[in-house]
Amino acid sequence: MVADPILYVALPLLTAFLLPIIGKINKELIRIVPGLLFAFLVYNSIALFSKVSATHTPIIVEIAGWAPPIGINLVYSSFTGFIATIISVLALLVWAYSYKFKKLEFDNSLKYFVLLMLVTAGSIGVILTGDLFNQFVFLEIVALSSYPLVAFYRGRNGAEASFKYLLVGGFASLSILLGIVLIYSQLGTLNMADIAAHIDEMPRNIKIVSFTLLFLGFAIEAEMFPLNGWAPDTYSQAPGPIGAVFAGMTAKAGIYALIRMIYTIFDFSGAFEILLIMGVITLVVSEGIALRQENLKRMLAYSSLGQMGLLMIAFGINTKTAVIAGMLILFNHAVIKSLLFLSSSFLVYNSKDKLIKDAYGMGKKLPLTAILFGIGAFAIVGLPPFSGFWGKLYLLMASADANLLGLIALILAVSVIEIVYYFRVVNGVYFKKSKTEIEVHKPRWNASLAMIILAAAIIVVGIYPNIIYDYLVNAADTLLDKASYISHVLPNLASN
Amino acid sequence: MTEELMQQILKISFYGASLALILIGLYGVLTKKNLIKILLSMAIAESGLNLLFVAIGYIMNGTAPIFSTAVLDENNQLLETVTMVDPIPQALVLTAIVIGLGVTAVGLALVIRLYKHHNTINIDEIRNLKW
Amino acid sequence: MKRIITILLLGVTGYFVADAVFSIPFGVDKLNIAKEYLLNSPEELKVANTVTAVVVNFRGFDTLGEVTVLFLAATGLGSILFRRRKYHTGLNPQREAPQASRIVQVGGKLLFPLILLLGAYVFIHGHLTPGGGFQGGVIIATGYLLLLVSFRKFAVKHSSLTWVEAVAGVTFAGIGLTGLVFGKDFLENFLPTGVLNSLLSGGIVGIIYVAVGFKVASELTGILDTMLSIKVEVDEENEEN
């Protein structure tokens, strides 16, 4: 079978266009075909990623037969490929989890799966593309598929959260587009490698303004404080599995765009400090707010923002250890947070307000889900032997190497806060009696399977981190080596 | 001399108008209470941005970048007197317009939903939208 | 008070952005990549309209994304506004306002085919003259809008819209993938390019733009029809997840 990075984007779009017709043939196919597609994307990831890891050279795909910088290109390197692999595996698991989701009727499930496929394709597109404007287009695909997903249920809050997101997202796209316009006006090119190679030709004032605009826009998508007021609402209003999609895919697309911009496109060294400081603020504020949440999903959402803060810190330190830590946290956030969103969705399935105390006593009624949630909670806090431990350990090591002793203290203090509020939930789930009688909804076997796979990944990586460590080192090397990115995309640059 | 003067006038009017549109749009987004007006303000800011992009691609005395028979000689070569403006901003603005349209359409649909729930499109009376 | 803060904020932002924008020279030749486009569009692709060549070929991937955005807008609109099929009959319960006047009705009927013709002309000649799939598609959608406003009972058949949408979208993505089958890149031209400035020039560019035209026309008509025939069931509280 063929494997090509272009299929990550082309096939989901093709399937999404076809799905309404497929649904006319047989309604069951609406649920099955997206699964086949996601399975193929996982296969595609494995085939391509093993190839890239073996050869250590990125796969550059030209589109429409024009070599970059004339045409648009995709870059599948150890770094982008790693994130794309996580996203495609996650998409398959979310599909398995929402297959036969109770609230999906025919018409709904068609739209749900179309949106799910497009949000996946968009997120992977943001990560693979080597063209700044193309990245903007994919970010808009991600945004436009997220708005309906947030408002998917009829409730009034869904529409409000979605509208809020739309306003902020609209501002983000304006800001990004203005940044792109300013860059184009100076360099006459949109290819990232080409921009990076000529960035020093830009006048300083235009460079600063366009950097600020792009940073602002991508920071909104990456959920950086104080631009993340919309995020908790969207996480808590969207259908259960979509929380996992937001944490694992769209937030990753945003942070990737931010990282690519800071590491590759621009040459401001101060940008790393800004990212670091904003990350610290995001971390502290989000975890502080998470401590006070009564609503389980909002608590998870704020904790997710805290993890994004950790990611920004890791990538802001800008050393090899720190980038490895960042990749580990990125992996952990995608896997653990998805597990938490998926399992918590069953803990408060029939509760109206999704309060933490509604999940009390679920340890006996839903033993498997409760255990899976417990694994997720222990893992995200950073306890051994779960994978979350390694992310935090490497981050602490990186901070120590960089002589940021205050940061070490801060991360440890925040971990204590995390322990407090996660243990409150786990304690409640196992040892408190539920006061109200809420009907329990048992997960189907497919949903359980999806959650068990995530939990298994957490434990396996926690015990044997070496199975992904080499890939992470490769990915970190690829990200930090700006010159080789440029020379791989534009091999003729030196000769011209 | 007149050529340069013309260029300056055009520069100030195009750049100035597009910046003014962007700022007016942002002002509307930040201060208006009516949800539809907020969406319209966003569309105004977007069109300002599109105008700016097209203006940046302009070259003095340039024609549309179309190789029609009017600008070609008998060997299908471009006449030497013809300059063509930059085609990329025009193509990208087309994309930006379509994306803006998509966002506006989804936004209006959400406004309809909100109106059904609250019987108002005033942002102050819709609880969770204030933050 | 809030206004003053807003104006101050915008003033500061505006100052920095204006400072950057006004230092961009206006009207001078600063082409870089665009030079390649202006060279290759008539030479290699035989597409007279360079903007079309950029939209459909050089940056065709963007356009695929753009078409997806429209598709998403139509899907999202449906997902936001409708819950169950049975509530959607195509007839608008709210449109009980009096019928449009006779003049509008007759005029609408008269203009409709001409508008369709103009739209089709614009997207078929997208590689030769200004315009193309998006513009032509929008023109066709305005034709349907005219009918929707002049006739209260006019309804667009949703199943045919679905088919047009799907076939057009699949044509675009499918032509792109066919390039891979021929051992070329995604969206790379694999057809003979013909002679510059003739209707059958440009290889796949013309075909894709026609597909885009159909796609845009059907999506926009669908959006307009959805917006005009809204019926939201406010049965929420018990429906929240």
List the helices and strands and how they pair.
The complex is a heterotrimer of chains A (496), B (131) and C (241).
Chain A: H1 7-25, H2 29-55, E1 59-62, E2 73-76, H3 78-98, H4 106-128, H5 132-150, H6 156-187, H7 192-198, H8 204-221, H9 231-237, H10 240-265, H11 270-291, H12 296-317, H13 320-347, H14 362-365, H15 367-381, H16 387-401, H17 405-431, H18 445-463, H19 466-480, H20 482-489
Antiparallel strand pairs in A: 1-2
Helix pairs in contact in A: 1-2, 1-4, 2-3, 2-4, 3-4, 3-10, 3-13, 3-18, 3-19, 4-5, 4-10, 5-6, 5-10, 6-8, 6-9, 7-20, 8-10, 9-10, 9-12, 10-12, 10-13, 11-12, 11-17, 12-13, 13-15, 13-16, 13-18, 13-19, 15-17, 15-18, 16-17, 16-18
Chain B: H1 2-31, H2 35-56, H3 87-118
Helix pairs in contact in B: 1-2, 2-3
Chain C: H1 2-22, H2 33-45, H3 50-58, H4 60-81, H5 102-124, H6 133-150, H7 158-181, H8 204-228
Word description of this protein:
The complex is a heterotrimer of chains A (496), B (131) and C (241). Chain A has 496 residues and is an all-alpha fold. Chain A has helices at 7-25, 29-55, 78-98, 106-128, 132-150, 156-187, 192-198, 204-221, 231-237, 240-265, 270-291, 296-317, 320-347, 362-365, 367-381, 387-401, 405-431, 445-463, 466-480, 482-489, and strands at 59-62, 73-76. In chain A, strands 1-2 form a two-stranded antiparallel sheet. In chain A, α8 runs antiparallel to α10 (240-265). Chain B has three helices and no strands. In chain B, α1 (2-31) runs antiparallel to α2 and α2 packs antiparallel against α3. The mean pLDDT of chain B is 88. Chain C has 241 residues and is mostly helical. Chain C is 64% helix and 0% strand. Chain C is globular. Chains in contact: A-B, A-C, B-C.
